[in-house]
Amino acid sequence: MTNAAPLRGVRVLDFTWVWAGPYATMLLALLGAEVIKVESQGRMDIMRRMIIWPLFSPVPQQIPPNQGMSFGAINMNKLGVTINLEQPLGIDLVKRLVGVSDVVFENMRPGTMERSGLGYEELRRVNPGLIMLSSSARGATGPESHYAGYATVHHAIGGASYVTGYPDGPPSTTFGDVDLVNATAGAFAVIAALHHRAATGEGQFIDYSQCEGVSSLIGEVLLDYEMNGRSPGRQGNADELMAPHNVYPCWGVDRWVAIAVETDEEFAGLARVMGRPELAADPRFTDAASRKRNEAALDEIVSAWTRARDRDFIANMLMREGIAAAPSRDADDLFHDPHLEARGTFVEVDQPEVGPRRFVGAPWIMSECAVAPWHAPLLGEHNDYVFRQLLGISEEELAGLQRDGVVQ
Amino acid sequence: MSPGAFQGVKIVEYATMVSGPYCGKLFADMGADVVKVEEPPSGDPARRRGPFPRDEAHPERSGLFLYLNTSKRGIALDLDRPDGLEAFRRLVAWADVLIDNHPPERLESLGLGWDELRQQNPGLILASLTPYGRTGPRAQAKGGELTSFHAGGLGNLLPTRSEDISRPPIKAGGYPTGYSTGLTAAVAIAGALYGRRANGDEGRLIDVSEQEAILALVRTNVASTIYHGTVWSRVPERPPALGRLKCKDGYVVALLIEDRHWRAFVDLMGNPEWASGPEWGTLFYRAGHLMEIADRIAEWAAQQSKEDVHHRGAAKGFAIGSVYSAEEVMNYRQYHARDYFVEVDHPEAGKARYAGWPYKMPASPPAVQRPAPLLGQHDKEVLEDLLGYSPAEFDGLRRSGAPWKASKQ
After folding, report:
1. Is B225 on the interface with A (CB under 8 A)?
2. Whole-prediction pTM
């Protein structure tokens, strides 16, 4: 027996857009599912034509539809079709696809699919074993189900921003990572539902709340309130037990190294590397508790040493001593990290219209999971395959659908 | 209680702290039979971490441990003793999945490297969660929550707005690295299990790196930087309409990109003349001029209450939300309306409401099947019921001092 991609044979109909949905279905594709992304000329994934800037930017944000690379990075290994959902024939076409699919995944506002006649109750009539996941800002039920949201707002509502920041500063959100982590949990729920269906034949509708997705990842923060009636505040880089445990300035502009010391042996190692072996015997620093008590003084000493040295030199010296140390890496650092290079973390795809592009591949290495990376689909790139081969639509019928603007 | 989606799946969790245990919890709460193996004398180091009731440290009352280990059975095994190791071998032979977040050298040194495990149990899925993965030049390097978060590229971007740019980049609060790594591994494991179930696959090795679990979440930022030349970094100032607003009683976060959202926001502010001219109607203009009215927006916000702005803004259709503390999350009406929290009664720590699951799965609902195990709580039932030790064998092991010896100290 030989292994192959584990989700082979699973077909996913993908109505997702922006970030929180598309990454979920890409993860399923990277495990071997056949993912068909449904868009139209009038309703395409807006990331196709966007450059994402951290600030409002005077640089034009709209680019040709197939060239937005934050789209390319989270839509690999999918098929792309164009169906106009505003036409009854388009809805019929979708239902035919639902009939041959296992999963529908969407992340529009609650109610949008229903208004198009594509709600779960409607679709399960076509396919009784269907698994459908709807991912929304705050879930499909409850008084705030209609609230709009983006990653940063979910982070705030979910309770994570409140604990992120300097101890003496304001709270901070993160970025689109919230969407991608919610996508990961959504993919997990879908595979779980596939297991349930394999055992019972039963499909189901999964209502996914992205705010709840944030809260589920800070379980211990919430328990502090339950146990002590207290809301934990912000800790910067600090840990409750370890010191040194911080990010230290290095030689150069905006260069930083993260160092985390767990044991006395590690601290002795750090002291040695710093050329200050006597620190290990300093009564202020002899064990974790005393180091934690004297953390400010310790941070001063470590900073004075790191400030005059190269970031990667420090990280390498400390790693050799068995101490956790890492540069605070930016995108360029990651793109050129020899370790990631050796692991094949970035994969190259031939992106039509723009050329070869290297994106982060699957976030795991799985033995015998033979899924070669390929480019995010052009708009409607796989109409022929999906409509002709998968649904068995004749050339004439397809031509008619195209003429009538159903398949655009 | 309806059976969870992973009912019948057998998992051994040889893992500490956050990543592996959260991974195990995800399956256990969905009905998998998860046996957590802890090493004496003190077990999972998460037991030493807070929050604790009344801040009194106690290994059976760690909020971190309690949350991450719901629905599991726990057994204390000293793998460095031959009889402890033998019990572990038999557990792994029983299992469909082994979740391990120790350096691979640990199991290899016990004669249980991947090749040996696979030989003994061809169906076994081994999920190996490590700071940098099992291959590559940093495979053996030590790492953890802080260093992997920064190595993976998310730390460098935080805090998103920094009044003093000379201060260091930070980790997000809590254990984001551990949780993300556990979640990532869970997707791969669930997939591999499905391959076994539906496609007749055999076991597999799944190699998950913390650094890559974080990098995976900033993949769009990386692509945007490399191919569009955008700069992602901490920035000293940021137009207040694209991020945090300070109200009189806390903060809100809003995102106003589309023109109609901007107009709705101006409407919320009462249409002040300084923001109402037609020139403000385009993103291009706002990009160039928003900072000029930043102080006035801040002045307006400072007089508002955050919940008022939050709900009135949301009613106008733009993305806005309050920055909620733990207390506010626990009292959040939307979560209560959705029954998000789940009450758990633990024999040592008592009753508390725990965070639930972001997915509602009516046909196979997740549930806390049992509270987190006490150290060694299920030694007898796991060894006798699962592994077929006779009561006499079990007693013999106990008298010989293993595997419980140290755990009872």
Report:
1. yes
2. 0.97
